[in-house]
Design goal:
Elements (H helix, E strand, L loop, with lengths): L6 E7 L3 H13 L5 E4 L19 H10 L15 H4 L9 E2 L16 E2 L29 H12 L12 H12 L10 E2 L4 E3 L5 E3 L2 H10 L4 E4 L2 E9 L2 E9 L4 E12 L5 H8 L15 E8 L19 H6 L8 E4 L7 E8 L17 E8 L8 E9 L5 E6 L4 H21 L1 E2 L5 E2 L36 E3 L14 H36 L1
Parallel strand pairs: 1-2, 1-11, 2-8, 11-20
Antiparallel strand pairs: 3-4, 5-13, 6-7, 9-10, 10-11, 12-15, 12-18, 12-19, 13-14, 14-15, 16-17
Bound molecules: flavin-adenine dinucleotide (FAD).
The site of flavin-adenine dinucleotide has 40 residues, from helix 1, strand 9, helix 7 and helix 10.
Length: about 525
């Protein structure tokens, strides 16, 4: 017996925030449509897709993280202090790394590029930073981009005030503003980081995952079903158009065909092109212009501006660069955003940490909020040859075509990184006294913001995979979703933008479903009249 339906209107591959955005918009706008979502990983949190940070029990949270790590489950992760700087190739909790194919001789590669396999995808493990793209990060050919970003804010439950009560947040913001804001337009000045998080009435933080994106509209939709532990191995085409998917039920290893009029592949920016490749959908641009953000991190301590009478707290342990980039945010943390501009091409995520990334003297403990972790992300100089390729002979852990990543930093990338290292020291000094001796440059792939591999284009000129509604040029009815769709080189965290693009694609499918429904009703009406 198969647990899957024989056919649906829309099949969605992947249950991260972008797949969930399709499910939500379709549930709201096309309530008659039947939708099946297939996710290769298990359900690790409740409600399905919710952020693991919302799991209060530490052991239960660790177990949810480990069950998200697919083939890497059980391997050491960088959760321990100092691990990032030690240079070991380790994944962050809830993610796993590639065994091979991540770097080749003479190239830089993406050594720590990572994946999550669980209901909710990486969105069950992310930091939730949702800044808006600016200047060259924006997609110039989308006239409705701002409205779509507002829609993405709604879907992800983005707020800016969750950490307003955190100590010294305002001081940090004011000091950074004094160092940065001169000459910037209002929207690109130093400000609170928009975050996908809200506070419950009892004061507890609730981090947004796919559960928030699904919302009740999806969960209560009688025609929506989420199938976990279900690997989509192929998208099926008939006469060049979407016709369904082939799914392997990982509970019993049986393979099934589910017919669908529309297929949305939202399987992250490396596995989305993998699914297309496996399906024989291989446009020239597939996997090309792959780009990720380089990152530098630094830490400073606020000593002045702290009242002498302020209560002293013992250090809560040791924080790490991992906290800056992966967001181990506690109730005491504040997060400040230094927006990217073309003139200052860095996206700044400045987080107040509970404890220092380097050991402090025992008689000089830091007060919460006074240790400031600074992270600057840079946008890649886009190159056609930066790419993920797939093997026709070798398979990965899941039996899908194995990946080979070719990736190089250009001279321009290195020059921008040098500028970022200078800038982060300047910002650190503006905020307080530097704790680190020098900035640390994260290994490539660490941002987990890899993008561009199924890029959107305004016209089908061979340089893009999909059109402005995310529909694959060469395969009508097949839509792609996720960071891979973003055609620009962004320095800011990309999920808000990807969810915005997903909303646009989902609305298009809803419109097409309505048009077909109307057409079918009209045909039925006409045939009744003639009978
Ligand atoms: P994903 O969330 O990766 O979901 C894709 C899903 O598809 C996965 O669950 C996967 O198992 C499934 N899948 C893959 N292949 C198949 C298949 N063949 N069949 C069935 N299912 C399949 N981004 C930000 O914007 N801001 C941040 O602050 C931020 N912080 C982060 C911190 C961490 C620690 C991590 C891990 C990520 C962070 N990110 C951040 C990145 C963010 O999580 C991703 O951009 C986002 O989750 C992408 O959403 P998605 O739906 O496209 O893909």
């Amino acid at each position: 017996m198969s647990r899957y339906p024989e056919s649906v209107d829309v099949a969605i591959v992947g249950s991260g925030p972008t797949g969930a955005a399709y499910a939500r918009i379709l549930s709201e706008r096309a309530p008659n449509a039947t939708i099946a979502m297939f996710e290769v990983g298990p359900t690790v949190s409740s409600p399905p897709g919710s952020h693991v940070k919302n799991i209060e029990d530490v052991a239960a949270r660790a177990s949810a993280q480990e069950r998200s790590e697919g083939p890497g489950a059980g391997a050491a992760t960088v959760s321990s202090p100092g691990a990032v700087k030690a240079g070991d190739r380790m994944a962050r909790p809830g993610t796993y790394l590639l065994d091979d194919g991540y770097a080749f001789d003479g190239e830089d590669g993406l050594p720590v590029v990572a994946f999550s396999s669980n209901v909710g995808g990486m969105g069950a493990h992310w930091t939730g930073a949702c800044p808006r793209p600016g200047d060259s990060e924006r997609i110039a050919f989308l006239p409705d981009l701002d409205e779509l970003l507002d829609e993405a804010d709604r879907l992800l439950g983005v707020t800016t005030d969750a950490f307003d009560g955190a100590p010294y947040t305002r001081l940090v913001r004011e000091r950074l503003a004094a160092a940065v804001d001169d000459g910037r337009p209002a929207g690109r000045r130093v400000q609170r980081m928009p975050l996908a998080v809200h506070r419950r009435d009892d004061g507890r933080l609730v981090w947004s995952g796919s559960d928030i994106v699904f919302g009740d509209a999806t969960r209560q939709h009688p025609n929506f079903t989420l199938f976990d532990e279900s690997l989509v191995t192929r998208v099926l085409l008939e006469d060049g158009r979407a016709a369904g998917v082939t799914v392997r039920d990982l509970r019993n290893d049986r393979v099934h065909v589910v017919k669908a009029r529309f297929v949305v592949v939202a399987a992250d920016a490396l596995r989305t092109p993998q699914v297309l490749w496996a399906s024989g959908i291989r446009p020239l641009a597939l996997g090309r212009m792959l780009n990720d953000q380089s990152q530098v991190v630094f830490a400073a301590r606020i000593r002045d501006g702290v009242p002498a009478s302020a209560p002293r707290h013992a250090p809560a342990g040791q924080s790490d660069e991992h906290d800056v980039v992966a967001g181990t945010l506690s109730e005491e943390s504040g997060v400040t955003w230094v927006p990217f501009t073309d003139a200052a091409p860095f996206h700044g995520q400045i987080m107040q940490l509970d404890a220092s990334p380097v050991p402090l003297a025992e008689d000089d403990p830091a007060e919460p909020g006074t240790i400031v972790g600074l992270g600057l992300f840079t946008a890649k100089d886009l190159q056609w040859d930066d790419r993920v390729e797939f093997s026709d002979d070798v398979t990965d852990f899941y039996g899908m075509p194995a990946m080979r990543i070719h990736y190089r930093l250009t001279d321009r990338d290195r020059a921008v990184l040098d500028r970022a290292r200078e800038e982060i020291v300047r910002l650190g000094n503006a905020v307080g006294e530097p704790i680190d001796e020098r900035p640390f440059t994260m290994p490539l792939g660490a941002s987990l913001h890899y993008q561009g591999s199924v890029r959107m284009g305004e016209v089908d000129d061979g340089l893009s995979v999909c059109g402005p509604y995310s529909e694959v040029w060469s395969a009508p009815g097949v839509f792609v979703a996720g960071n891979g769709v973003i055609p620009t080189a962004t320095a800011c965290n990309p999920t808000l933008t990807s969810v915005a693009l997903a909303a646009r694609g989902a609305r298009r499918i809803a419109d097409e479903l309505h048009a077909t429904e109307f057409h079918e009703r009209k045909l039925e009406h006409d045939s009744r009249r003639t009978r």
